TrEMBL record:
This is Tetratricopeptide repeat protein.
């Protein structure tokens, strides 16, 4: 059941990313985090929560906090070997002007 939950949330996350929907990204990262938590994948859940927090900071106009949250999440992704997620955050950081474009 939790794998199906995660797969559905991941598909919605992909759609939000493709549409550059910050609110959708925040919500779906939170949902993915919940699915991972129920599967006992706590570190991955934390990285998705941190990434969701970054999106929420952007919506609140708090870009410095968003950048820090994204950097924290990216570091966790790197430590877990989630290269695609880390690369996605690198692009997000570049889009925010926090780092050079990859």
């Amino acid at each position: 059941m939790f794998r199906a939950w995660e797969a559905t949330a991941a598909a919605a996350l992909h759609t939000a990313r493709r549409r550059d929907d910050g609110a959708g990204l925040a919500r779906m990262h939170r949902v993915v985090a919940g699915a991972k938590d129920f599967q006992g994948r706590n570190t991955s859940a934390i990285s998705h929560c941190t990434r969701a927090l970054g999106e929420r900071y952007v919506r609140a106009g708090r870009l410095p906090e968003a950048i820090q949250a994204w950097r924290d999440a990216r570091q966790t992704y790197i430590e877990l070997g989630f290269d695609k997620d880390a690369a996605s955050l690198t692009r997000r950081l570049a889009g925010a002007g926090a780092e050079p474009r990859p």
